[in-house]
Design goal:
This protein has 154 residues and is mainly α. The protein contains seven helices and four strands.
Length: 154
């Protein structure tokens, strides 16, 4: 199947868009997927337009040094720590673009995730400790440890 955008290259993936409850799927080549994602993230990062320039420059990932401004311009984070370190600023953009902040699907190592997010497990762990349910807290803690070990942030 040819790319439905450029009509030149073989489609290697697809993008879905939901408008007024109607979902459409467009099969695209890798080049067009890259361009469409870049455009989509750039427009979503327009949310930062109201943020003053110094605040954008100060928001930096301590692990890779990527600035929020650079992420806003390119649509790409520098490393997996960008998600955790800049989460409060990235979350609305990710939710706007992807409809969810929980990753489901394949990871770079080809394994499928079950949709369990670290932040969700951390919240469950906190509740278990607050209610003094230490057995449940241990189970959740072990799940968290395994999820963090298996994440592609190795």
């Amino acid at each position: 199947m040819l790319c439905e955008n450029c009509g030149k290259n073989e489609a290697t993936g697809y993008m879905e868009k939901t408008v007024n409850g109607v979902k459409t799927r467009m099969h695209l080549c890798s080049k067009c997927i890259f361009e469409k994602q870049k455009d989509m993230f750039s427009s979503a990062f327009g949310m930062f337009a109201g943020m003053n320039e110094p605040a954008l420059k100060k928001a930096v990932c301590p692990k890779c040094g990527r600035k929020l401004k650079d992420i806003a311009n390119s649509g790409f984070v520098g490393c997996t720590s960008c998600y955790t370190e800049l989460f409060d600023r990235l979350q609305p953009v990710i939710k706007n673009v992807q409809s969810s902040t929980t990753h489901t699907g394949k990871t770079p190592d080809g394994k499928h995730t079950d949709g369990v997010s670290i932040s969700k497990l951390e919240a469950e762990l906190k509740r278990a400790v607050e209610t003094e349910n230490y057995e449940q807290a241990e189970i959740i803690s072990n799940k968290l440890k395994k999820l963090k070990e298996n994440s592609y942030a190795k």
